[in-house]
Amino acid sequence: xxxxxxxxxxxxxxxxxxxxxxxxxxxxxxxxxxxxxxxxxxxxxxxxxxxxxxxxxxxxxxxxxxxxxxxxxxxxxxxxxxxxxxxxxxxxxxxxxxxxxxxxxxxxxxxxxxxxxxxxxxxxxxxxxxxxxxxxxxxxxxxxxxxxxxxxxxxxxxxxx
Length: 161
Prior knowledge:
With 161 residues, this protein is of the alpha+beta class. It has one domain. Helices cover 41% and strands 17% of the residues. It has helices at 11-61, 73-87; strands spanning 97-99, 104-108, 117-120, 125-130, 137-141, 146-149. Strands 1-2-3-4-5-6 form a six-stranded antiparallel beta sheet, covered by helices on one side. A hairpin with a 4-residue loop joins strand 5 (137-141) and strand 6.
Protein backbone atom coordinates (compact mmCIF):
# COMPACT_ATOMS: atom_id res chain seq x y z
CA UNK A 1 0.00 0.00 0.00
CA UNK A 2 1.48 3.19 -1.20
CA UNK A 3 0.40 6.56 0.15
CA UNK A 4 0.74 9.51 -2.16
CA UNK A 5 0.44 12.97 -0.85
CA UNK A 6 -1.49 15.38 -3.07
CA UNK A 7 -1.15 18.42 -0.82
CA UNK A 8 0.56 21.75 -1.53
CA UNK A 9 1.75 23.45 -4.71
CA UNK A 10 4.49 22.54 -7.09
CA UNK A 11 7.53 24.76 -7.45
CA UNK A 12 6.42 25.91 -10.90
CA UNK A 13 3.00 26.95 -9.63
CA UNK A 14 4.60 29.01 -6.86
CA UNK A 15 6.99 30.71 -9.32
CA UNK A 16 4.13 31.60 -11.66
CA UNK A 17 2.14 33.17 -8.80
CA UNK A 18 5.19 35.13 -7.61
CA UNK A 19 5.83 36.38 -11.16
CA UNK A 20 2.22 37.55 -11.53
CA UNK A 21 2.38 39.36 -8.17
CA UNK A 22 5.64 41.03 -9.24
CA UNK A 23 4.12 42.28 -12.50
CA UNK A 24 1.06 43.65 -10.70
CA UNK A 25 3.26 45.38 -8.11
CA UNK A 26 5.31 47.06 -10.85
CA UNK A 27 2.15 48.39 -12.50
CA UNK A 28 0.77 49.71 -9.21
CA UNK A 29 4.05 51.41 -8.22
CA UNK A 30 4.24 53.11 -11.62
CA UNK A 31 0.73 54.45 -11.16
CA UNK A 32 1.55 55.70 -7.67
CA UNK A 33 4.53 57.69 -8.96
CA UNK A 34 2.32 59.36 -11.58
CA UNK A 35 -0.25 60.18 -8.91
CA UNK A 36 2.47 61.66 -6.67
CA UNK A 37 3.73 63.92 -9.47
CA UNK A 38 0.19 64.99 -10.25
CA UNK A 39 -0.41 65.83 -6.60
CA UNK A 40 2.80 67.84 -6.40
CA UNK A 41 1.84 69.81 -9.51
CA UNK A 42 -1.62 70.49 -8.08
CA UNK A 43 -0.01 71.82 -4.89
CA UNK A 44 2.30 74.10 -6.88
CA UNK A 45 -0.54 75.39 -9.06
CA UNK A 46 -2.65 76.17 -5.99
CA UNK A 47 0.19 77.99 -4.22
CA UNK A 48 0.92 80.13 -7.27
CA UNK A 49 -2.79 80.74 -7.92
CA UNK A 50 -3.12 82.05 -4.35
CA UNK A 51 -0.61 84.76 -5.25
CA UNK A 52 -3.35 86.34 -7.37
CA UNK A 53 -5.57 86.81 -4.30
CA UNK A 54 -2.61 88.13 -2.29
CA UNK A 55 -1.74 90.53 -5.11
CA UNK A 56 -5.23 92.02 -5.03
CA UNK A 57 -5.04 92.46 -1.25
CA UNK A 58 -1.66 94.23 -1.62
CA UNK A 59 -3.05 96.29 -4.52
CA UNK A 60 -5.93 97.58 -2.38
CA UNK A 61 -3.79 98.12 0.74
CA UNK A 62 -1.05 100.02 -1.13
CA UNK A 63 -3.26 102.60 -2.77
CA UNK A 64 -3.96 100.68 -5.98
CA UNK A 65 -0.39 99.67 -6.79
CA UNK A 66 1.12 96.24 -7.46
CA UNK A 67 4.65 97.47 -6.68
CA UNK A 68 4.98 95.58 -3.37
CA UNK A 69 3.35 92.31 -4.45
CA UNK A 70 6.65 90.43 -4.75
CA UNK A 71 8.10 91.76 -1.52
CA UNK A 72 4.98 90.89 0.51
CA UNK A 73 5.56 88.19 3.12
CA UNK A 74 2.49 86.27 1.95
CA UNK A 75 3.82 86.09 -1.62
CA UNK A 76 7.21 84.88 -0.40
CA UNK A 77 5.56 82.17 1.70
CA UNK A 78 3.48 80.94 -1.24
CA UNK A 79 6.53 80.78 -3.50
CA UNK A 80 8.43 79.06 -0.67
CA UNK A 81 5.77 76.35 -0.55
CA UNK A 82 5.94 75.84 -4.31
CA UNK A 83 9.75 75.68 -4.46
CA UNK A 84 9.92 73.22 -1.55
CA UNK A 85 7.70 70.82 -3.49
CA UNK A 86 10.02 70.92 -6.50
CA UNK A 87 13.49 71.24 -5.02
CA UNK A 88 12.98 70.02 -1.49
CA UNK A 89 14.64 73.23 -0.35
CA UNK A 90 13.29 76.48 0.99
CA UNK A 91 12.74 79.57 -1.11
CA UNK A 92 15.95 81.52 -0.47
CA UNK A 93 15.07 84.89 1.07
CA UNK A 94 18.59 86.31 0.67
CA UNK A 95 18.24 86.26 -3.12
CA UNK A 96 15.26 88.61 -3.07
CA UNK A 97 16.11 91.97 -4.47
CA UNK A 98 15.27 94.78 -6.83
CA UNK A 99 16.14 94.41 -10.46
CA UNK A 100 16.78 98.08 -11.21
CA UNK A 101 17.44 97.39 -14.89
CA UNK A 102 13.74 96.74 -15.42
CA UNK A 103 12.48 98.79 -12.47
CA UNK A 104 10.73 95.82 -10.90
CA UNK A 105 10.96 93.48 -7.96
CA UNK A 106 12.49 90.16 -8.90
CA UNK A 107 12.49 87.25 -6.49
CA UNK A 108 14.48 84.15 -7.26
CA UNK A 109 14.79 80.85 -5.48
CA UNK A 110 17.81 78.53 -5.34
CA UNK A 111 20.47 78.97 -8.00
CA UNK A 112 19.45 75.84 -9.91
CA UNK A 113 17.40 76.07 -13.10
CA UNK A 114 14.28 75.22 -11.09
CA UNK A 115 13.57 78.60 -9.52
CA UNK A 116 10.45 80.57 -8.72
CA UNK A 117 10.24 84.20 -9.72
CA UNK A 118 8.01 87.18 -9.13
CA UNK A 119 8.15 90.56 -10.83
CA UNK A 120 5.92 93.57 -10.24
CA UNK A 121 5.61 97.27 -10.95
CA UNK A 122 2.90 99.86 -10.28
CA UNK A 123 0.33 98.39 -12.69
CA UNK A 124 1.18 94.72 -13.20
CA UNK A 125 2.80 91.59 -11.81
CA UNK A 126 3.79 88.09 -12.87
CA UNK A 127 4.71 85.09 -10.67
CA UNK A 128 6.06 81.72 -11.81
CA UNK A 129 7.13 78.48 -10.18
CA UNK A 130 8.53 75.31 -11.72
CA UNK A 131 6.33 72.23 -11.90
CA UNK A 132 7.47 68.96 -10.35
CA UNK A 133 6.56 66.51 -13.11
CA UNK A 134 7.83 68.38 -16.18
CA UNK A 135 10.54 70.92 -16.97
CA UNK A 136 7.97 73.71 -17.30
CA UNK A 137 6.49 76.45 -15.11
CA UNK A 138 3.11 77.49 -13.73
CA UNK A 139 2.49 81.19 -14.21
CA UNK A 140 -0.07 83.75 -13.00
CA UNK A 141 -0.20 87.39 -13.99
CA UNK A 142 -2.20 90.55 -13.41
CA UNK A 143 -4.26 90.03 -16.58
CA UNK A 144 -5.92 87.01 -14.96
CA UNK A 145 -4.02 84.30 -16.83
CA UNK A 146 -2.99 81.05 -15.13
CA UNK A 147 -1.04 78.89 -17.54
CA UNK A 148 1.66 76.30 -17.95
CA UNK A 149 4.60 77.83 -19.81
CA UNK A 150 7.87 76.40 -21.11
CA UNK A 151 10.15 79.21 -19.87
CA UNK A 152 9.96 81.94 -17.24
CA UNK A 153 9.06 85.42 -18.54
CA UNK A 154 11.97 87.54 -19.71
CA UNK A 155 13.08 90.81 -18.05
CA UNK A 156 10.40 93.23 -19.29
CA UNK A 157 7.61 90.70 -19.74
CA UNK A 158 4.78 90.76 -17.20
CA UNK A 159 2.53 88.19 -18.88
CA UNK A 160 2.25 84.43 -19.01
CA UNK A 161 2.77 83.68 -22.70
